[in-house]
Amino acid sequence: MSMALRTEELMLNMGPQHPSTHGVLRLVVTLDGENIVDVKPDIGYLHSSVEKMMEHRLYVQNVSLADRGMDYLIAMQNEQVYCLAVERLAGIEVPERGKYLRVIFDELQRIASHLVWLGTWGIDLGATTVFLWCFREREMILDLFEKVTGGRLHHAYFRIGGVYVDPPAGWTDEVKTFLDYFDERVVEYDKLLTANPIFVARTKGVGVIDRRAAIAMGASGPVGRASGIAMDVRKVEPYEVYDRMHFDVPVLTDGDCFARYQVRLEEIRQASRIVRQALKELPGGEVRSRVPMTMKAPRGEAYARTESARGDLAIYLASDGEEMPYRVKIRAPSFSNLYALSEMMRGWKIADVIAILGSIDIVLSDVDR
Amino acid sequence: MSIGFVGPRPESTPPAEPKRSQIAPVAEMVGILDSLPGGGLILTTVEAALNWGRAASIWPLTFGLACCAIEMMAAFASRFDLDRMGVIPRATPRQADLMIVAGRATLKMAPIVRRLWEQMPEPRYVISMGSCATCGGPFYYDNYSILKGIDQVVPVDVYVPGCPPRPEALIEGILKLQEQIKKEPFLRKQALDAIAARSAGPR
Questions:
Q1: Cα separation of A83 and A159, whole Å?
Q2: Which of A182, A290, A336, A337 is close enough to A218 for a disulfide, judged by CB 3.0 to 4.6 Å?
Q3: DSSP state of B61
Q4: Which pTM value belongs to this model?
């Protein structure tokens, strides 16, 4: 971008208390007039030292810590990646029904998380209706969760070796009823936003990051797929029963905010499709294999990656043969996606900061851990 | 939908008479003389009327730290709709009466929470939402980065337990704060302070 008139550079401090930073993120923005010269994210305001705490808890106890310490919007998917890592380390088999239930809850959680993102991003862009609509549907998903797990946000439902308990009678029919209702609502979101001239003006062509830069910054998930990286862990390294599920992975090449929005909206539709298929094929039998409360993992290490709502979420687990892990390392997708932020924002106007920041969907608990 | 910790009501007791406070919130501290011909007359104190207004328009600061902030957002959103209690989120501490500390505060964040509290105009209130803000919660042991309770940096009026508390619990916390505000000797305290300052004499 050519800048004919150069003025004195201005440092602007945004956050950590700012209504649009989605948590406690601080951005140090360097401005030349209205143009953004550089953006430096300052993180660590929500560092919970959860990796260190996991070294002092039993393998079974860590499940509820994974709920809270990692990304709090996708508690089930955190449990998923943690349980997967422990099961690989200790060689525990999950019964078939447990695997299907895990997939159902993973995808419902993905829908709930994307709804929070769409609602809050709508507020950032000045559309309050979207927020109210998205939270209306999200409450219904939370009700479905509550009937099975007892919790709204933190569940501790996935256990090592399966899931905690079978859903109550009639629950699967309720999910089907909800999905029938929800699919119509997605059409409404699409009508409300995709053709909305204000929304399109704020997002289309804004915050572009090309494929090469996105790979260099380690972007994954919807941010990467909007820039043309055709990578979904559910396809390339299927876990649980994702290899049997029929779903498409939306990949766009525009790399702008609008593409990221379109990718997520399509992911919501595909998640609904996966849940339908999993409900149809749901087998009977046990939901959990027997694992002792004070289980000991054999000496060794394991790495498990999953596709969370934000991208490639992975855990590396090292064990020295005791009943607590020796070292836990969480590969957080939001952390890598935040790196791509400076690349996206450079050269844009100050008014686009909020739109671009909202579009990468970071959760600060995931960034800082 | 479950409603929370409502115990079973004993069946033998007759239904209670509706309280004055259920007829009108202001009626707790007023006398209504409605037997006059052609209308009524309300007797109250300026303080009671002021407190009634303050309790019915608590404006919190839009300020979330962690998971509890999501439940706070849910409380503001469609189903629970805190707006109907006059609770409207404000984005700047200069316009806020209430700070809802929603979530765990790290040692890096604690001075900023204190700064925000100092920026709020008096009278100001603090709700500590969730176990982490109250005492460190699940992050109490084996942890080097989380502040063990937000009351170490700001004075807290209402503690809401839970991990995270349900939106109903937050609403209950706000109702408790409203009760507290209605009983506050708001003007009397100012007057007493002024008298105390005068009797201390010129310096």
A1: 7
A2: A336
A3: B
A4: 0.86
Under-70 pLDDT residues of chain B: 1-41, 201-203
CB-CB neighbors (< 8 A) of A365 in chain B: 66-67
With an 8 Å Cβ cutoff, are A52 and B142 in contact? yes
SS (H, E, C) A192-255: HHCCCHHHHHHHCCCCCCCHHHHHHCCCCHHHHHHCCCCCCHHHHCCCCCHHHCCCCCCCCCCC
Amino acid at B159: Y
> How high is the pLDDT of residue A279?
92
Partner residue facing A131 (CB), from B77, B79, B106: B77
B-chain residues within 8 Å CB-CB of A19? 62, 91
B109, A45 in Cβ contact below 8 A?
yes
Q: CA nearest B91 in A: which residue?
A: A19
Residue A41, helix vs strand vs coil: strand
- Whether chain A has a CB inside 8 Å of the CB on B1: the answer is yes
Identify which of B106, B105, B101 has the alpha carbon closest to the alpha carbon of residue B165: B101
Structure tokens at A158: 């996935």
ipTM above 0.95, yes or no: no
CA distance A312 to chain B (A): 21
